[in-house]
Amino acid sequence: MEYLLDPLCLGVGLVLCDVLAWRLIGPGYKRLRLAIRLAIFALLTTVLLYGGMSPLDAAPSPEQPVRHFLGQTLEIIWWLLGARALTILLDALFMPKAWHQERLFQDVLGALIFVAAAVAAIAYVLELPVSGLLATSGALAIVVGLAIQSTLSDVFSGLVLNATQPYHLGDWVSIDGVDGKVLEINWRATHLLSAQGNLVVIPNNLTARAKITNISRPSELHGVNVSIQVTPEARPNVVVEALERAVLGCKVALAKPAPSVMVKHAGANSIEYEITCYVQDIADKRLATNQLFDLAHRHLASVDVDLRPLTVPSPGTPATDHRQRLLSTVSIFQTLSADELSLLAKRLSRHEYQAHQTVVTSSEVTDYMLLVDSGVLSVSIARGDERVETARLGPGDAFGEPGVLAGIAMQVTIEAITGVVLYRLDKSDLTPVLQSRPEVGSQMCQLLSKRQESNNAFGNVQPSAHAGKSSVLQWLQDKMHSLHHLAGGKVP
Questions:
Q1: 298 and 330 part of one domain
Q2: Taking a C-beta distance cutoff of 8 angstroms, is the pair 415, 360 a contact?
Q3: pTM greater than 0.90
Q4: Which of 4, 123, 204, 328 has its CA 20 to 30 A from that of 220?
């Protein structure tokens, strides 16, 4: 068993322990890996010095080829282990935290230290002339450098990018028109994950010369810009006020920084308006953009500004009544004919509310429907001691169906954010429509049933805790038949 205490055997055993520890301990335990590597390196140094094998001298026992070779191998490994331990130690102590997950500086620093360790091992352990080797390697480096100058350009560009840090891992950036999330920054390129789920690899040389937009900095706010071209016949002040109301109707848009609307460009054929707002999450940018275009269309229509082709002349005064046009935009009345809409429009009464005025309370049972003609309203629900906004309403929206159909409260509070104009349709005026056009009542019942299914906060219409979707729909239909004295047991 004495051979087990031989310095050569102990040295080989420590090297094997280092390899096993490095393989078995996961990358998440960086401090444990560093501590074990430093401990093994210290033990290997002690064993080598105890066995008379100084890494600064040639290996002993030249008359015994096997022991001499093992001694040389252990001394070379000592230099390499020392280089690796030094690299990890410098990375842990002096590297900025922002660089710990970026491989480029770690790889470059490790390469330089390993080259120095290899040269030292050749000079001290193998006792080879380093000066001649360096001269030869210099000439070789010139030849290799000319052959891989593109790669070297990427490496040095990567060093500049890491030093200036225009972006970090996890940031959303736009590099020369390519948008994506930074996944990796290595020797050769920057890897982006695009919004379509594709991996985009951009060489560092191109990145260093390209225009870089960091969407994730300097804060977590993300700007949304929407441009709309409107006929110059429309008065700009009217258009700006309508678009400002449209921004208020976008629930995902942040109140601070405040959104803005401006005239961007005025020409002979059109005037371009730009809406700017901010969202908290980059994933909300697409949702906000889509909502803003829809809301802009609705709010402009509410002030009789139609988004028509600019080459088409204005039709002048609308052929249909304004109230009839409003009714036609509500989904539940789109099955009615023009004559039916005209008769129903004559029964609408106009009501105005000031900003911050409550329109409907949560306990109120409305025997009427309200159609939003202009302005923005907030829908909120009570949760504990506070109220939480769940939706916003704008031109073309309607509410009050639970009271009209089933005689129940909406269980939400609706408050005007801006000055609003609403048109009211009483239950008594809606009854003839439901009697002559039962599909309208069916659509209203299905709408409320879908709201219940999707947890929409326009009121809980659930008759019992165990009722399913079909039970809710049937219950609403029964309530509607009873309230409006409709014939038949079910609306088709």
A1: no
A2: no
A3: no
A4: 204
